[in-house]
Amino acid sequence: MASDSKQRPVYVISVAAELVDMHPQTLRLYERKGLIRPGRSSGKTRLYSERDIEHLREIRRLTQELGVNLAGVEEVMRLQHELDDLQGEFEAEIERIEGELREQARPQALPAPGEATDPRDRPVYVISIAAELVDMHPQTLRLYERKQLIRPGRSSGKTRLYSERDIEHLREIRRLTQELGVNLAGVEEIMRLRHELDGAKGHLESNVRRLQDDLTERMTRWRTLPAPDEETDADEQTDADGEPGQL
Protein backbone atom coordinates (compact mmCIF):
# COMPACT_ATOMS: atom_id res chain seq x y z
CA MET A 1 0.00 0.00 0.00
CA ALA A 2 0.89 3.69 -0.24
CA SER A 3 2.09 3.91 3.36
CA ASP A 4 4.44 0.93 2.97
CA SER A 5 7.10 3.06 1.25
CA LYS A 6 7.08 5.56 4.13
CA GLN A 7 7.64 2.74 6.63
CA ARG A 8 10.53 1.18 4.72
CA PRO A 9 13.81 1.65 6.67
CA VAL A 10 16.39 3.12 4.29
CA TYR A 11 18.50 5.82 6.00
CA VAL A 12 21.51 5.07 8.19
CA ILE A 13 21.79 7.21 11.33
CA SER A 14 24.28 9.70 9.87
CA VAL A 15 22.02 10.46 6.90
CA ALA A 16 18.90 10.63 9.09
CA ALA A 17 20.65 13.04 11.48
CA GLU A 18 21.67 15.26 8.57
CA LEU A 19 18.14 15.26 7.13
CA VAL A 20 16.65 16.53 10.41
CA ASP A 21 19.61 18.73 11.42
CA MET A 22 20.34 16.83 14.63
CA HIS A 23 23.39 15.09 16.09
CA PRO A 24 23.37 11.27 15.75
CA GLN A 25 23.70 11.03 19.53
CA THR A 26 20.40 12.92 19.84
CA LEU A 27 18.72 10.30 17.66
CA ARG A 28 20.09 7.57 19.91
CA LEU A 29 18.72 9.39 22.98
CA TYR A 30 15.29 9.70 21.38
CA GLU A 31 15.34 6.00 20.59
CA ARG A 32 16.15 5.13 24.23
CA LYS A 33 13.23 7.33 25.32
CA GLY A 34 10.93 5.47 22.92
CA LEU A 35 10.25 8.63 20.89
CA ILE A 36 11.50 7.06 17.68
CA ARG A 37 11.56 3.42 16.57
CA PRO A 38 14.13 2.87 13.80
CA GLY A 39 14.41 -0.47 12.07
CA ARG A 40 17.53 -2.65 12.01
CA SER A 41 19.46 -4.23 9.19
CA SER A 42 20.55 -7.85 9.35
CA GLY A 43 23.81 -6.53 10.79
CA LYS A 44 21.91 -4.60 13.54
CA THR A 45 22.58 -1.21 11.91
CA ARG A 46 19.92 1.39 12.65
CA LEU A 47 17.83 2.24 9.58
CA TYR A 48 15.34 5.10 9.56
CA SER A 49 12.24 5.38 7.38
CA GLU A 50 10.50 8.44 5.91
CA ARG A 51 7.98 8.15 8.75
CA ASP A 52 10.84 8.22 11.28
CA ILE A 53 12.16 11.39 9.61
CA GLU A 54 8.70 12.98 9.91
CA HIS A 55 8.58 12.06 13.60
CA LEU A 56 12.04 13.52 14.25
CA ARG A 57 11.04 16.78 12.58
CA GLU A 58 7.90 16.84 14.72
CA ILE A 59 10.01 16.35 17.87
CA ARG A 60 12.22 19.27 16.84
CA ARG A 61 9.14 21.45 16.22
CA LEU A 62 7.67 20.58 19.62
CA THR A 63 10.86 21.23 21.55
CA GLN A 64 12.31 24.20 19.66
CA GLU A 65 9.22 26.06 18.40
CA LEU A 66 6.63 25.25 21.07
CA GLY A 67 8.93 24.75 24.07
CA VAL A 68 7.33 21.43 25.02
CA ASN A 69 9.30 19.53 27.66
CA LEU A 70 10.47 15.96 27.14
CA ALA A 71 7.57 14.46 29.11
CA GLY A 72 5.13 16.22 26.78
CA VAL A 73 7.05 15.10 23.70
CA GLU A 74 6.91 11.52 24.97
CA GLU A 75 3.11 11.76 25.20
CA VAL A 76 2.83 13.23 21.70
CA MET A 77 5.04 10.60 20.11
CA ARG A 78 3.33 7.76 21.99
CA LEU A 79 0.03 8.87 20.48
CA GLN A 80 1.63 9.31 17.07
CA HIS A 81 2.96 5.76 17.21
CA GLU A 82 -0.52 4.57 18.21
CA LEU A 83 -1.91 6.29 15.13
CA ASP A 84 0.73 4.65 12.95
CA ASP A 85 -0.03 1.23 14.43
CA LEU A 86 -3.77 1.80 13.99
CA GLN A 87 -3.24 2.68 10.34
CA GLY A 88 -1.29 -0.55 9.90
CA GLU A 89 -4.06 -2.53 11.60
CA PHE A 90 -6.66 -0.83 9.42
CA GLU A 91 -4.81 -1.65 6.21
CA ALA A 92 -4.27 -5.24 7.32
CA GLU A 93 -7.98 -5.60 8.15
CA ILE A 94 -8.99 -4.16 4.77
CA GLU A 95 -6.69 -6.63 3.01
CA ARG A 96 -8.12 -9.49 5.04
CA ILE A 97 -11.73 -8.60 4.24
CA GLU A 98 -10.96 -8.00 0.59
CA GLY A 99 -9.34 -11.44 0.54
CA GLU A 100 -12.53 -12.94 1.95
CA LEU A 101 -14.54 -11.18 -0.76
CA ARG A 102 -12.28 -12.61 -3.44
CA GLU A 103 -12.40 -16.12 -2.03
CA GLN A 104 -16.12 -16.02 -1.16
CA ALA A 105 -15.27 -17.00 2.40
CA ARG A 106 -17.75 -17.26 5.27
CA PRO A 107 -18.42 -13.77 6.70
CA GLN A 108 -17.70 -12.91 10.30
CA ALA A 109 -20.56 -12.20 12.69
CA LEU A 110 -21.73 -8.60 12.47
CA PRO A 111 -21.97 -6.31 15.50
CA ALA A 112 -25.33 -6.38 17.23
CA PRO A 113 -27.64 -3.42 16.58
CA GLY A 114 -26.80 -0.44 18.73
CA GLU A 115 -23.10 -1.24 19.07
CA ALA A 116 -22.08 1.31 16.45
CA THR A 117 -22.21 4.20 18.95
CA ASP A 118 -19.86 4.07 21.91
CA PRO A 119 -21.85 4.86 25.11
CA ARG A 120 -18.81 6.78 26.37
CA ASP A 121 -19.51 9.42 23.71
CA ARG A 122 -23.06 10.12 24.92
CA PRO A 123 -23.20 13.68 26.36
CA VAL A 124 -24.79 13.47 29.81
CA TYR A 125 -23.01 15.74 32.34
CA VAL A 126 -23.71 19.46 32.69
CA ILE A 127 -20.63 21.63 33.23
CA SER A 128 -21.00 21.86 37.03
CA ILE A 129 -21.07 18.07 37.41
CA ALA A 130 -18.22 17.59 34.91
CA ALA A 131 -16.10 20.15 36.78
CA GLU A 132 -16.76 18.38 40.07
CA LEU A 133 -15.86 14.96 38.59
CA VAL A 134 -12.45 16.18 37.43
CA ASP A 135 -11.82 18.57 40.35
CA MET A 136 -11.61 21.70 38.17
CA HIS A 137 -13.39 25.04 38.10
CA PRO A 138 -16.13 25.35 35.45
CA GLN A 139 -14.28 28.36 34.04
CA THR A 140 -11.27 26.11 33.42
CA LEU A 141 -13.46 23.78 31.36
CA ARG A 142 -14.67 26.75 29.32
CA LEU A 143 -11.04 27.79 28.72
CA TYR A 144 -10.13 24.30 27.56
CA GLU A 145 -13.10 24.31 25.21
CA ARG A 146 -11.97 27.64 23.68
CA LYS A 147 -8.52 26.09 23.21
CA GLN A 148 -10.27 23.09 21.58
CA LEU A 149 -8.70 20.74 24.10
CA ILE A 150 -12.17 19.43 24.89
CA ARG A 151 -15.28 19.29 22.72
CA PRO A 152 -18.46 18.98 24.77
CA GLY A 153 -21.81 18.40 23.13
CA ARG A 154 -24.79 20.72 23.36
CA SER A 155 -28.38 20.16 24.37
CA SER A 156 -31.27 21.55 22.30
CA GLY A 157 -31.08 24.58 24.60
CA LYS A 158 -27.32 24.99 23.90
CA THR A 159 -26.32 23.77 27.37
CA ARG A 160 -22.87 22.17 27.45
CA LEU A 161 -23.04 18.41 28.00
CA TYR A 162 -19.94 16.33 28.68
CA SER A 163 -19.52 12.63 27.91
CA GLU A 164 -17.50 9.98 29.75
CA ARG A 165 -14.84 10.37 27.06
CA ASP A 166 -14.74 14.13 27.74
CA ILE A 167 -14.20 13.35 31.43
CA GLU A 168 -11.34 11.01 30.50
CA HIS A 169 -9.77 13.75 28.36
CA LEU A 170 -10.09 16.34 31.15
CA ARG A 171 -8.40 13.99 33.60
CA GLU A 172 -5.63 13.44 31.06
CA ILE A 173 -5.17 17.22 30.69
CA ARG A 174 -4.86 17.54 34.47
CA ARG A 175 -2.28 14.73 34.56
CA LEU A 176 -0.24 16.35 31.79
CA THR A 177 -0.23 19.81 33.34
CA GLN A 178 0.02 18.97 37.04
CA GLU A 179 2.01 15.72 37.11
CA LEU A 180 4.22 16.04 34.02
CA GLY A 181 4.52 19.84 33.84
CA VAL A 182 3.59 19.98 30.15
CA ASN A 183 2.89 23.51 28.94
CA LEU A 184 -0.38 24.44 27.23
CA ALA A 185 1.15 24.25 23.75
CA GLY A 186 2.21 20.68 24.44
CA VAL A 187 -1.18 19.81 25.87
CA GLU A 188 -2.84 21.19 22.72
CA GLU A 189 -0.66 18.93 20.54
CA ILE A 190 -1.35 15.90 22.71
CA MET A 191 -5.11 16.44 22.81
CA ARG A 192 -5.23 17.10 19.07
CA LEU A 193 -3.59 13.72 18.55
CA ARG A 194 -5.98 12.11 21.04
CA HIS A 195 -8.98 13.46 19.12
CA GLU A 196 -7.37 12.30 15.87
CA LEU A 197 -6.76 8.87 17.34
CA ASP A 198 -10.36 8.59 18.55
CA GLY A 199 -11.58 9.65 15.11
CA ALA A 200 -9.27 7.20 13.36
CA LYS A 201 -10.52 4.35 15.54
CA GLY A 202 -14.13 5.26 14.77
CA HIS A 203 -13.29 5.50 11.07
CA LEU A 204 -11.61 2.10 11.15
CA GLU A 205 -14.56 0.48 12.91
CA SER A 206 -17.13 2.00 10.53
CA ASN A 207 -15.13 0.96 7.47
CA VAL A 208 -14.72 -2.57 8.77
CA ARG A 209 -18.46 -2.75 9.45
CA ARG A 210 -19.19 -1.42 5.96
CA LEU A 211 -16.94 -4.03 4.37
CA GLN A 212 -18.45 -6.78 6.50
CA ASP A 213 -21.93 -5.65 5.44
CA ASP A 214 -20.80 -5.74 1.81
CA LEU A 215 -19.34 -9.19 2.31
CA THR A 216 -22.57 -10.44 3.89
CA GLU A 217 -24.68 -8.99 1.08
CA ARG A 218 -22.53 -10.61 -1.60
CA MET A 219 -22.54 -13.95 0.15
CA THR A 220 -26.35 -13.80 0.53
CA ARG A 221 -26.79 -13.10 -3.18
CA TRP A 222 -24.38 -15.90 -4.07
CA ARG A 223 -26.18 -18.42 -1.86
CA THR A 224 -29.62 -17.59 -3.29
CA LEU A 225 -28.61 -18.01 -6.94
CA PRO A 226 -30.23 -21.11 -8.52
CA ALA A 227 -27.87 -24.02 -9.07
CA PRO A 228 -26.93 -24.76 -12.72
CA ASP A 229 -28.80 -28.12 -12.60
CA GLU A 230 -31.95 -26.40 -11.39
CA GLU A 231 -31.76 -23.94 -14.29
CA THR A 232 -31.31 -26.83 -16.75
CA ASP A 233 -34.25 -28.74 -15.27
CA ALA A 234 -36.43 -25.66 -15.51
CA ASP A 235 -35.51 -25.18 -19.18
CA GLU A 236 -36.22 -28.83 -19.99
CA GLN A 237 -39.59 -28.66 -18.21
CA THR A 238 -40.53 -25.60 -20.24
CA ASP A 239 -39.69 -27.41 -23.48
CA ALA A 240 -41.66 -30.49 -22.39
CA ASP A 241 -44.74 -28.40 -21.58
CA GLY A 242 -44.51 -26.68 -24.93
CA GLU A 243 -44.20 -23.22 -23.46
CA PRO A 244 -43.33 -20.93 -24.90
CA GLY A 245 -44.72 -22.17 -28.21
CA GLN A 246 -42.35 -22.98 -31.04
CA LEU A 247 -42.88 -22.37 -34.78
TrEMBL record:
Lineage: Bacteria, Thermotogati, Deinococcota, Deinococci, Deinococcales
Comp. bias intervals (Acidic residues): 228-247
Keyword DNA-binding included in the entry's annotation: yes
Keywords: Coiled coil, DNA-binding, Stress response
Region (Disordered) location: 221-247
Keyword Lipoprotein: no
Coiled coil regions in record: 76-103
Organism, scientific name: Deinococcus taklimakanensis
Stretches assigned to the HTH merR-type domain: 10-79, 124-193
Protein name: Heat shock protein transcriptional repressor HspR, fused homodimer type
Gene3D superfamilies linked to this entry: 1.10.1660.10
